[in-house]
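Annotated sample (chain length 233).
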Amino acid sequence: MLRTQKLGEADRIITTLTRNNGLKRVVAKGIRRTSSKFGARLEPFTVVDAQFYQGRSLDILTQVQTLRPYGLQIAQDYDLYTRANVMVEIAEKLSEEESHPPMYLLLLGALHALANRRHKPDLVMNSFILRAIAMSGWAPSFWDCAVCGRPGPCSGFNVSAGGAVCDTCRPPGSLAPSREAMGLLGDLLSGDWGSADVAEDFARREASGLVAAWVQWHIERRIKSYSLISSRN
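Output written by the structure step:
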């Protein structure tokens, strides 16, 4: 379950990411009534087994069973909640045009790690984003120069150039992140949690800013859920 929105007086439209059929937007009839048997099972971030039947414009939800109640765990912690919102918004945007089974599995693993506090929330979120973007064809470089391939480490970072850039290829306006932040980004992309978990706070903050710039550049749309994180900081 990615998100819900009101429809009429008692219904909701539920946006889901399915394993084999990509995004599905379905109507849950009567879900906002206190007598609804579906209500608690359709919270965002929850993994369910659901059945739909085809409607005129939107499919209709007929049956749902909770498999993993990540929504209940995540909703109890604001830091988890805000990071999960960013992840599902990005997963939705990256899955709009076609079915993407690996995206489903990637999001499932990230929500599991978040709900069970396997790692710091910002690390889980940024690792998910980097892998999701790489899976969609925009893998960044955090070591060798993205332009000429010169072996790293590189001193600059430029989103439009593909990530790390050497002094020769560095376009005007490039950032100059710390080596620690660039190393952390590489760890998050490759899944080296042993190194990522011990990263300094300054490197984590720096890395989060670079990830936000990277994903919004390539998606070409503002990620609205980022405002939940910035308003808290």
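Annotation: The first strand starts at residue 3 and ends at 7.
Annotation: The chain has two domains: 3-68, 72-230.
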